[in-house]
Amino acid sequence: MAEEALPGVLILDIGGTHGVLENLAALLKKHFHLITMKEFLGNKEEMSKKIQSIFVFECRPTIDRELLESLPNVKVIGNSGVGVDHLDLKLISSFGVKVTNTPHAVADPTADIGMALMLASARRLVEGNVLN
Fold first, then answer.
1. How far is residue 50's CA from residue 42's CA, in Å, rounded to a whole number?
2. Domain that holds residue 115
3. Which range is least confidently modeled, 32-36, 99-103, 122-126?
4. Rounded distance, CA 13 to CA 58, Å?
5. Do 93 and 121 belong together in one domain?
6. Do the Cβ atoms of 99 and 76 come closer than 8 Å?
7. Is it the case that residue 4 has pLDDT exceeding 70?
8. Whole-model pTM above 0.90?
9. 109 and 48, same structural domain?
10. CA dist 8 to 5, 18, 49, 58, 104, Å?
């Protein structure tokens, strides 16, 4: 499918300090035409028509009234994390936009780390390792 035929998704950036990880961006590119915030701000009039979704990675980009007003065709905001407490759900829903997230994405790894920390603490593994 041609890049222009894919739905547009707004992201902060690819790579760098706060951008979407490059391997994740490669996966997104299979299904979406990625538009960075820099590209959007450089040509709001044209880009705003193409953007149908926003991908929030590490709480970025910030979703506020000004951004939502500038994106008349946005239908969904996909949050890459578990929680959505950084999003104003009431504001977003007032624009008729849906919000998704990944509620179980890190449940097993979090439980694994919790168990490992409890076992390490109970058996004093860190202290034993330092002494050797």
1. 14
2. 105-131
3. 122-126
4. 12
5. no
6. yes
7. no
8. no
9. no
10. 9, 20, 9, 20, 26
pLDDT (0 to 100) of residue 1? 55
Q: Tokens 């915030």 identify what position?
A: 37
Two tokens, residue 32? 């979406």
3-state secondary structure of 116: helix
Half-sphere exposure of 47 (CA within 13 A, CB side): 19
Number of domains the chain is built from: 2
Task: Determine which helix (DSSP H) or strand (DSSP E) holds 108, and give its type and residue range.
Answer: helix 107-122
- Residue 113 forms part of a structural domain: yes
Check which CATH number belongs to the domain holding 15 and give it.
3.40.50.720
DSSP 8-state class, residue 63: -
pLDDT-derived band at 89 (thresholds 50, 70, 90) equals very high
Q: Is the pLDDT of residue 35 over 90?
A: yes
Average model confidence (pLDDT) across the chain: 91
Residue 87 structure tokens:
């999003």
